């Protein structure tokens, strides 16, 4: 997940990305640079490209959320105009067995349980309700500044916030929900829970702006299965290796 403070990545990105990733045998031929690149033949996907010591590329592809396409200009997934304004928000499975859920970072869906199944009743923009965004663990429209921080999911699971050791994100089916630990605790990505803050050193952060060149690859302190790819000083993805793997500075390898 691309995370940029200045604009929304709707995979869910920006809240909404479908986390289907596969390594294609010839995808690397479309890599023009390390970092994010357009997919060679699918507007609904994008590539994250890496490079080995010999200068050879390899790539993983990721899918934008339903109703979104990748914009090479904005380097993010954006709402597609391929569908009408009403239909683009009617996404199958968005009810998630809840009365209200976030479709993406800006839009909600209202659902009701009828005849043994959850069905959509209505949907719309949070801004039309006077709310700033859709997010949080409750997955609803809100004006909470913290909850309106947009995070790009790269897979299902829990992720630390590189800028704030109190904050974490839960990603499920491409939708991110933000959580915050109590004042006397910090989020531990290794334990995937909040742990007591016993010293200043317990608060560990990563800063893309400290890098001297881009893209930069940073491993999370003391928890090597997490790493971030900095595209510039403000734009980054947070990744997690598969279980049993750690990031060696360039790729995930068996631990």
List keywords for this structure.
four-stranded antiparallel sheet; 255 residues; 22 strands; mainly beta; disordered N terminus; single chain; globular
* Number of domains as seen in the coordinates: 1
Give the H and E element order. Answer: EEEEEEEEEEEEEEEEEEEEEE
Structural class: mainly beta
Question: How large a portion of the residues is in β-strands, by DSSP E?
Answer: 35-45%
Name the strands of the widest sheet in spatial order: 1-20-19-18
Give the overall pLDDT as a whole number. Answer: 76
Q: What share of the residues lie within helices?
A: under 10%
Count of DSSP strands:
22
Description:
The protein is built from no helices and 22 strands. The protein is mainly β. It has one domain (2-254). The strands form 8 sheets. A 4-stranded antiparallel beta sheet has the order 1-20-19-18, with no helix packed on it. A 4-stranded antiparallel beta sheet has the order 2-5-4-3, with no helix packed on it. Strands 8-9-10 form a 3-stranded antiparallel beta sheet, with no helix packed on it. β3 and β4 (45-51) form a beta hairpin. The radius of gyration is 18 Å and the shape is globular. The two termini are 23 Å apart. Residues 1-25 and 82-93 have low confidence and may be disordered.
Please specify the SSE layout and strand pairing.
Elements: E1 2-3, E2 17-22, E3 35-38, E4 45-51, E5 57-64, E6 68-71, E7 76-79, E8 100-102, E9 107-114, E10 117-125, E11 133-135, E12 140-142, E13 157-161, E14 164-172, E15 175-180, E16 185-188, E17 193-196, E18 216-219, E19 226-230, E20 236-240, E21 245-247, E22 252-254
